[in-house]
């Protein structure tokens, strides 16, 4: 229920509330808001702000969500993503999206090597991207270790493609920053155009699909990422084989 992204927004007062909740998890569903506020040494207004940060409109809704979380109630997951995909297809047709694709393609066309980076699900997509690029004749690597010797002396005109759904993954940001410092251009593929990774990139491609969580785990569709990777690879192949 308490995701890393959510907890990153917690203030010291929020953390005091959180601490009381997890230490009294069995009582929270029956505990009045004033009792929790007194226990955490905060105001009831702080409790309500905490509830909103946790995705609840009020304390009663928070208690219900928390009880369901403790009881292991499974979140519903839509098995029809047609609306999301249609929204992405419409975005693909936009001028801004096509300009981002073209800018990334021009960087890649000039490169001698492409390095994919990412962790978790994005890491698996990075491995797929490196293989796909290599299959069309463009030398590519996937790296998840910032201390690999190959990174100490990058080939000229190296381009890094950083994958992160949130654009906030600290390990990916660290590796991307180190590669930039060594002269690599950075292309980011994220779901958040205002994220740290997107802002530090020379070119960002955002896909803007609705985030989906099931039992606190991110199951946001990654079809747009695969589309972007394959589109860039095909453009490279066609430019090399007119």
TrEMBL record:
Q: Which residues does the UniProt record annotate as the domain SIS?
A: 97-242
Checking InterPro entries in the record gives:
Homeodomain-like_sf, HTH_RpiR, RpiR-like, RpiR-like_SIS, SIS_dom, SIS_dom_sf, WH-like_DNA-bd_sf
Q: What biological-process GO terms show up in the record?
A: carbohydrate derivative metabolic process
The reply to whether Transcription figures as a keyword in the UniProt entry is yes
As one GO molecular function, the record gives: DNA-binding transcription factor activity
Superkingdom is: Bacteria
What residue stretches are annotated with the HTH rpiR-type domain? Answer: 1-73
Instruction: List UniProt keywords, sorted A-Z.
Output: DNA-binding, Transcription, Transcription regulation
Q: Which Pfam families match?
A: HTH_6, SIS
Output this protein's name: MurR/RpiR family transcriptional regulator
Q: Which organism is it from?
A: Candidatus Mediterraneibacter tabaqchaliae
